[in-house]
UniProtKB/TrEMBL annotation:
Keyword entries, A-Z: Membrane, Transmembrane, Transmembrane helix, Transport
Membrane topology field: Multi-pass membrane protein
GO annotation (BP), single: iron ion transmembrane transport
Subcellular compartments: Membrane
NCBIfam families for this protein: nramp, Nramp_1
InterPro entries in alphabetical order: NRAMP_fam (IPR001046)
A Pfam family this chain is assigned to: Nramp
Domain of life: Eukaryota
Record organism: Galdieria partita
An annotated Gene Ontology molecular function: manganese ion transmembrane transporter activity
Name the UniProt record assigns to this protein: Uncharacterized protein
Membrane-crossing residue ranges in chain numbering: 55-77, 97-119, 139-164, 170-189, 196-218, 238-258, 279-309, 342-370, 382-401, 407-427, 447-465, 485-508
Main localisation: membrane
GO CC annotations on file: plasma membrane
Amino acid sequence: MTENFTVAIIPAQDTVQNNGSCQLSRDLEFMERTYKDDEEKNTYVGKFRSFWKQIYSWLLGLLKFAGPGWMVCIGLIDAGNYEGDIQAGAGFQYKLIWVIWWSSVIEILVQILSIRLGLYSSLDLAQSCRKNYPPFVSYILWILMEAAMIANDLTQVIGFAIACEILFEMPLYAGILLSFVTTLLILSLQYWSIRYLELCVTLIILAMCTTFFIQWSMVQTNGAEMMKGWIIPTIPSGSSLVILSQIGSCIMPQCIFLQSSMVQTRKVESTKNDLHRAYVYNVIEFVFPMLLVFIANLAAVSLAAAGLYNNPKISVSYSDIGLSNICQLLQTAFPENSAGCILFGLSLLASSQSAVVSGTFAGQIVIEGFLNIRLPLWLRNLLTRLATIIPALIISILAGIEGSGLALLISSAILSATIPFAIIPLLKFTQSSKIMGSFRNPRYVSVFMWSIAIGLVIINVYLIVGAQGDYTLQSSLSDISITSIIGIIATVVIGILYIGFLAFLIWYPVVFDSDVHRVVI
């Protein structure tokens, strides 16, 4: 019995031990599997949190660089562009939207080069011109840029005054004086921080875009025709001058100088990674408001296309439409929309005011860069404003609203003619290794941008030689008289000087080495 018992108990002990070890093994396996699941879950949660932390950090970095793009983008939807959009929509419906789109693209490409110059060379465009060209050439460039800024500023001041006349029934000269006061008040924000000035301009632009979008929502837009005009380039009969004016207004010379300086208001470490990150942030920060402003241009064109194109109630030719009569025409086209004229006045007021502030700030940069002088902030603002207010007041008092239309036309011509004098130096400097080091433009970028610059020169030559109308070369050739002969001689002389000076800017080599960020870490 004892042996049997002993034999019987041993298997029982083995069974208990085996069962216990199996249970322990299963427990360990379960714990291991649970740990792995928790670890995998924690890994997914960690990756998710890390992803959003990176997004949050990236947005904070972008917010740090926000501001300069909003100061610059107003060049594509100021009072002059607004008038051109209305004429394009009233005369050719949606057929010229492609011009506005590609004008925006050209503006973006040029400003990207301006960002590169300011960021990688630590010099703005005005300083680069002063350091590279002989003194007399720098002075000529400064005078040309001052003329361009005064011409552009004159357009905005008159636009502001017309908006005040629409909204508050103020006389033209009173609106001009009011713009003087409001601009100086807004510019005074610089005393606290440049960020406050940028924020103020951003809010004004957002208000302007809001009024555009509200007006757009009140009319019916032919979406198919709009997309067709956007995608398919066409040149309708009689649209040449409108297209040329749109292209000519796509690039504001003062905005190029402004952008190259504004990117330096943010502190960036002189390492390759930090510079590249700052470059990406600046480009994105500029492209976003540009796209928003392009949509605002679409709204203006659509408004005119819906109400003024082939409208039997409108007896005015599209070429005679200006800031002074747009409000009345909109009231005639949309009699059921009583708020249309008020919204137009608000949008014109906002666009003109923001453009005046931006232009005045650019004027300060141009004076300091070309002349290498430092004036007190209040004196710079005062001198820049007086340079525009005085001729604007003279025009408003002597010629009234009719004379302001001619002044706007002359201002547009001056702006168009001075664009190459900003783009050509920009292209020369950004493709030079002496200034940009390893950050200079690739060859394909230089070829493409030089093609655009040459195209703009050809456009200006055409405007001088082939433009139709009063006080043009064509009108002088058709009427042979002493006055016409003098006009022809003056046109030829100005044309030769114009082409000759551009050729000199292209030919003159880059002769100085800039203290650029060439640190590669």
